[in-house]
Structures are given as C-alpha cells and as structure tokens.
Amino acid sequence: MYSLIEKFKEKIKEVKAPKVVDYSKDRQFVGNIIISVLTERISVKRGLLLFPKGCEDPSIHAAWHALCHYEADEDIRAKDIDYNNQQIELLEMIAFAFKDGNPLPQNIIESYKPYYQDDPISYEIGMKGLIKRLLRYVNF
Fold first, then answer.
1. Residue partners of 77: CB distance under 8 A and separation at least 6
2. For the CA atoms of the chain, what is the radius of gyration?
3. 71: closest CA among 42, 44, 108, 36?
4. To 10 degrees, the CA torsion angle through 105, 113, 136, 29?
C-alpha cells in the first residue's frame, strides 16, 4: 500500500512540474541559418522558411523577426551604412549566441515580442496551419 501511495505522489509531481524543453539543437540550427544568410549562401526568404515550425522558444521567435526585419529593411540598409552595420551586428550576435545553444538576452526577446502574434513559425501542424502558411506567402 505504501509503494502505491509513493507512486501516486510521483505521478502528481510529474503532472505539476513544468516540462523543461531543451531548445539548444534548434538554436544551433537557426544560428547556422543566419550565418548562411549573412554569407549569402541562401536567401533571406529561404532562411525564414527553414526555421523550425511549431518551436515555442522565444529566442528563436526573436531571431525569426530579426531576420524578417533584415529582409524588409533592404532599401534602408542600402542608403544608410550605419544602419546596415547595426543589423548585421545584431544578426551576428544572435548567430554566435545560438552557436552554443544559448538563449538570447531578455531585452532582445522583449523588443520583438509585439510581433509574435503574427508569427508564421508558430503555426500549428495540420490543414489549418497549412492554409495560414500559404496565405501568408501568397501575394494577391
């Protein structure tokens, strides 16, 4: 009887304990994507499409948005070399933080948080997610 109670207590602890997810492999993968974009081995759009889908890591979401901003600000970067250098330095810092699987500093994560609600990498898997992704990249 005693062992049954102990097993029950262990099950309750498992349910209550928050699950710790290791995102280090995903971060390393994303770091390599960013380096590939910066060295022009792949396009920014291709890099964005390669990001892991359904990943809940706020650091990866922030990196996705930083890369989106890099793509969107191409015309500004062409005119303003200082702005260009700042964006490249930010992406390099993200890539090097991700090289060892480390998360981004909280201030960087917070600066991109307002954009998370329209975040295609968090679309669910299945038909609904497929439709959302298709509509996101189809321009009418």
1. 70, 83, 84, 87
2. 19
3. 44
4. 20
Band (pLDDT 50/70/90 cuts) for residue 14 is: low
Say what the pLDDT of residue 140 is.
47
pTM of the model: 0.71
Structure tokens belonging to residue 74: 């191409």
Residues 6+ apart with CB under 8 A from 132: 120, 123
Q: How far is residue 99's CA from residue 106's CA, in Å, rounded to a whole number? A: 17
Give the residue from 60, 64, 62 showing the smallest Cα distance to 21. 60
Tens digit of each residue's pLDDT (9 = 90 or more) over 85-110: 999 999 999 999 999 999 999 999 99
Which contacts of 93-96 are long-range, i.e. CB under 8 A and separated by 24 or more positions?
94/31, 94/34, 94/62, 94/63, 94/66, 95/31, 95/32, 95/34, 95/35, 95/38, 96/31
